[in-house]
UniProtKB/TrEMBL annotation:
EC primary class: ligase
GO molecular function: DNA binding; DNA ligase (NAD+) activity; metal ion binding
NCBIfam families reported in the protein's UniProt record: dnlj, PRK07956.1
UniProt-listed SMART domains: BRCT (SM00292), HhH1 (SM00278), LIGANc (SM00532)
Organism: Atribacter laminatus
Cofactor: Mg(2+); Mn(2+)
High-level lineage: Bacteria, Pseudomonadati, Atribacterota, Atribacteria, Atribacterales
GO cellular component, one term: cytosol
UniProt protein name: DNA ligase
Length: 673
């Protein structure tokens, strides 16, 4: 890229970040999520690292963000409230540990591991044990004095407890709002036509920076403390842990999950654990904070202008990164669906290199206004296909190219069609090689027939050479034919034939999934084969028979019926059978899941149910191995009582037959599947 362009891009990115900083810190109205903001910041840091000649002192990377808001008196912190340097990779954390040991000339360091609470930093000043000031971090040096608001927070003592009261102390901690309180607050705001807060961190900040303390008092804020400056005191703790214990004695809430560890590997283990468990907490955390325990050693290490050297934020993996769109291609799926796909400048998202991201369909493409050459944020969550979250349109130069969906299939050049009400353009050619390729890829994939060695490249080769036209052709392949293919030796040809042979007796659920019926994923295929004992039964089943199955709705059942009404599909199944493909069904007792609650029991209904017709409810009981009778008798195990029950209810009570309300019944139905 040209140098000039790079400089311009860096400057544009800085301007965007400055705007976000202003909206976040001053207006308290961010327009992007923290994840998105962090992605922009990381991109800027990367560019400045690669082109240090363009690094300027006014770059947002070079300062502790945040500017005091008008309306609150300034408060000068005794010691600046710094930011934390941060890392996501394990190796960077090990490197942090190594660096400290080197600087301290030691070969082991002790750390306190704390949760990184996602709220806002606060500094509290106590003189002779009395709360005199509470201030936000502000720009780190000067914060906003929000004392009247602070005084409304119940977890903040107005007077310190115990008999070891320091003359003057400043205490730092994180003010936060729990997830439930946040949801309640947002519901109320929506009901009152007020804009909801973006996240709990924002809600906490917004609540604390109210000009009227009575407003703050209505918000459920809490404080965890994590540090202190003893300004005048007879005590001088020598470890951070001791200090935290002391803060507890003074009447503060210290987070219960703090841990003292003596090796960096323990820290990494704790991080792994919290990455999985963070959802269970009642408040949001975005990582851990690792702090050197020895206070004298901390003084020796000191701080940079931005952050202390003795601590690091160990953040959780990001799910969003910024990158550029090199091209937009169109992918043809196995049912002919055309999906626009962004080809990306490769980017590492949470440890995985992402080169392509889906743009879903034409409407999405237009809604997000994605163009070739655009800078975009790309998101990736777990195993989900990466997607373009949004375009950073401020970053445009004018040379971006608007993309048009093609009017013919990019694979076979047949016309494409978009049905009214459908989001997707489709290639209408049933002989489209791209569709065939995708059908076979799907057939061979791990969750389907799991044919080892039959990867996408080989499938393309088989189709292009004409050896394979349809799924059934796979089972007609001969070693001699395969050996002639490029990069295929006798050994791999033999292995492939063997792998194809082994797929003949896969479980029925895999076979059903492999057929590629729209809306029938692995899970639905499993439900179907649990319910029906053979493929023939599924093929012959009526809509009603599908609909009584839990987990099968009208869309799925319609799709199955359609699929088996198409003669090509039935023909394929017949051919496969003739070629020796005989999917196996698990034993009957497994195929019908044991329905513990209903199994073998007798049920009677009375009154009207609000969520089911009587017939539906009865079918649900029967499908779970229960029996339904029409009259009361000592055989009845439960009476299910709807609205306006009849005399059966009195009779059941007399006979000591337990009653179930509709919601109890629903609960059993759900837990029983
Ligand atoms: N969405 C937006 O537009 C936007 C704009 C600007 C900033 N931001 C967000 O603001 C954050 C940057 O803020 P930052 O500079 O405070 O950095 P930071 O959040 O990465 O780390 C420092 C902060 O961690 C907090 N913290 C929580 N638990 C702690 C503990 N146990 N010990 C010590 N500190 C603890 C403190 O408040 C401290 O100030 C980023 O997460 C960014 O996403 C968002
Ligand atoms: Zn086509």
């Amino acid at each position: 890229m040209e140098r000039d362009t790079i400089r311009q891009e860096i400057e544009k990115l800085r301007e965007i970040i400055r705007q976000h900083d202003y909206r976040y810190y001053v207006l308290n109205q961010p327009t992007v999520t923290d994840d998105e903001y962090d992605a922009l910041m990381r991109k800027l840091q990367e560019l400045e690292k690669n082109y240090p000649e363009y690094l300027t002192a006014d770059s947002p990377t070079q300062r502790v963000a945040g500017k005091p808001q008008d309306g609150f008196p300034p408060f000068l912190h005794f010691q600046p409230l710094l930011s934390l340097s941060n890392a996501v990779e394990e190796d960077d954390i090990r490197e942090f540990d190594q660096r400290l040991q080197r600087l301290l000339n030691q070969n082991q360091a002790e750390y306190v591991v704390e949760l990184k609470i996602d709220g806002l930093a606060i500094n509290l000043r106590y003189e002779e044990g009395i709360l005199t000031h509470g201030a936000t971090r502000g720009d780190g040096t000067v914060g906003e004095d929000v004392t009247p608001n602070i005084r409304t927070i119940k977890t903040i003592p107005l007077r310190l407890l115990g008999d070891k009261i320091p003359q003057v102390i400043e205490i730092q901690g994180e003010i936060f709002m729990g997830k439930n309180a946040f949801n309640r607050l947002n519901q109320e705001r929506i009901a009152k036509n007020e804009p909801p807060f973006a996240n709990p961190r924002n809600a906490a900040a917004g609540s604390l920076r109210q000009l009227d303390p009575r407003m703050t008092a209505t918000r459920e804020l809490h404080l965890f403390v994590y540090g202190a400056t003893l300004i005048e005191s007879n005590l001088s703790p020598i470890t951070h842990w001791e200090l935290l214990m002391y803060l507890k004695e003074l009447g503060f809430m210290v987070n219960p999950y703090i841990q003292l560890v003596s090796s960096i590997e323990e820290v990494i283990d704790i991080h792994r654990k919290w990455e999985k468990k963070r959802k269970q907490l009642e408040y949001e955390i975005d990582g851990l904070v690792i702090k050197l325990n020895s206070l004298p050693d901390r003084s020796r290490l000191g701080s940079t202008s931005k952050s202390p050297r003795w601590a690091i934020a160990y953040k959780f993996e990001a799910t969003t990164e910024m990158t550029r769109i090199l091209n937009i291609e169109v992918n043809v799926g196995r049912t002919g669906t055309l999906t626009p796909v962004a080809v990306l400048e490769p980017v590492n998202i949470g440890g995985v290199t992402v080169k392509r991201a889906t743009l879903h369909n034409e409407d999405e493409l237009k809604r997000k206004d994605v163009r070739i050459g655009d800078w975009v944020l790309v998101g990736r969550a777990g195993d989900v296909i990466p997607e373009v979250v949004r375009v950073i349109s401020e970053q445009r130069t004018g040379s971006e190219i608007i993309f048009q969906m093609p009017s013919t299939c990019p694979a076979c050049h047949a016309p494409v069609k978009r049905e009214i009400g459908e989001a997707a353009w489709k290639c209408v050619n049933i002989n489209c090689p791209a569709q065939r390729k995708e059908k076979i890829n799907h057939w061979a994939s791990r969750d389907a027939m799991d044919i080892e060695g039959l990867g996408e490249k080989l499938v393309s080769q088989l189709i292009e050479t004409g050896l394979v036209q349809s799924i059934s052709d796979l089972y007609r392949l001969k070693i001699e034919e395969l050996i002639d293919l490029e990069r295929m030796g006798p050994k791999s040809a033999e292995n492939l034939i063997k792998a194809i042979g082994q797929s003949k007796t896969r479980e029925l659920a895999r076979f059903v999934y492999a057929l590629g019926i729209p809306f029938v994923g692995s899970h639905v295929a499993q439900i179907l084969t649990n319910h029906f004992s053979s493929l023939d039964q599924i093929i012959k089943a009526s809509e009603e028979q599908f609909l009584i199955i839990d987990g099968i709705g009208p869309t799925v059942s319609q799709s199955i019926l359609n699929f088996f009404s198409i003669s090509e599909n039935l023909h394929l199944i017949k051919e496969l059978k003739a070629l020796g493909v005989h999917p196996t069904q698990k034993k009957k007792e497994k195929s019908v899941k044991p329905q513990e609650f209903f199994q073998g029991k007798t049920f009677l209904f009375t009154g009207t149910l609000s969520h089911f017709s009587r017939k539906e409810a009865e079918d649900l009981v029967v499908s779970r191995g229960g029996k339904v009778v029409k009259a009361i008798s000592s055989q009845v195990n439960y009476l299910i009582v709807g609205e306006q029950p009849g005399s059966k209810r009195e009779q059941a009570i007399k006979k000591n037959i337990p009653l179930l309300t509709e919601s109890e019944f629903e609960e059993k139905i759900q837990s029983d599947f």
